[in-house]
Amino acid sequence: MDFETRWMEDFLALAATHSFSQAAERRHVTQPAFSRRIKALEAAVGVTLVDRSTTPVALTPEGQMFLITARNVVAQLHESISRLRGLQLNTQQVIEVAAAHSLAFSFFPDWVTTVKDVMDNLSLRLVAMNVEDAVHALREGHCDLMQVYYDSYATLQLDAHTFPSIPLAHTTMLPVCVPDAETGLPLYSLDASSDADIPLLAYTPGAFLGRTVRLLLKNDPILLRLRTVYETAMAEGLKGMALNGAGVAWVPKLCIERELEEGRLVVCGGEQWHAPLEIRLYRCALVRKPAIDKLWRRLEKAL
């Protein structure tokens, strides 16, 4: 298929601004030209990526999923160009971090900003993946650090001595859906006394956050009313479907703070259906790299 990498950078600008005019200004093109490039991108991938019926514009569920791919491809492209130009930092000082998809673009950027004072001359290379793959990468030595969720329901199978961790932040898994257009109340409610089915936007089997939800609801009568209508391994995908009114999804609060503040999503169940989550940074104690040791000591002192 005909494809231009600049279209992905256009798409990233649109995802960041939620505005065709602002994104066009950021990309230094006219709005009509920018709109044509986004349409060309959608034609190339064969799906609609942007919901133009909303103000501000929003990404479709497919757009939410493509956003991760676009970010990774653009980042890898820039890295390759830097290497070719001889601008890449000394590889001894580059630390590779495997992070859960939702953390990669909802938590990691802000976290890096808060710890920049302890980074010195170190450079981080971020790779987004699901939690299971991240754990495998850490165990096999394919990454230096791992940033993932931890919860009391579905703990990671990692020995604390071999894989020490540093707690970074706390969040909560919340059941959310769109509000009713007239009342502003949740379109679907876990607290309602009705016996009607509730459409569930679920994580695929094996997804870490899916285990958290299943263990949270274990033996609860609400399970009889939940009817799975959609599955994906990524929280961002579930958020996209929830924004389209397709059902109820359990999503980490840090991923939906903007949508909650704007009232585009509302919490649709009481605290008994909220699951606490912790964000942790892991390393393998068996791997001794001066750069990792130095950064780890500084992060521990910064707690």
TrEMBL record:
SUPFAM superfamilies attached to this UniProt entry: Periplasmic binding protein-like II, Winged helix' DNA-binding domain
Keyword Zinc: no
Location of the HTH lysR-type domain: 1-60
GO function terms (MF aspect): DNA-binding transcription factor activity; transcription cis-regulatory region binding
InterPro entries reported for this sequence: LysR_HTH_N (IPR000847), LysR_subst-bd (IPR005119), WH-like_DNA-bd_sf (IPR036388), WH_DNA-bd_sf (IPR036390)
Keyword Transcription set for record: yes
Key words, A-Z: DNA-binding, Transcription, Transcription regulation
Protein family according to the UniProt entry: Belongs to the LysR transcriptional regulatory family.
The name this protein goes by in its record: LysR substrate-binding domain-containing protein
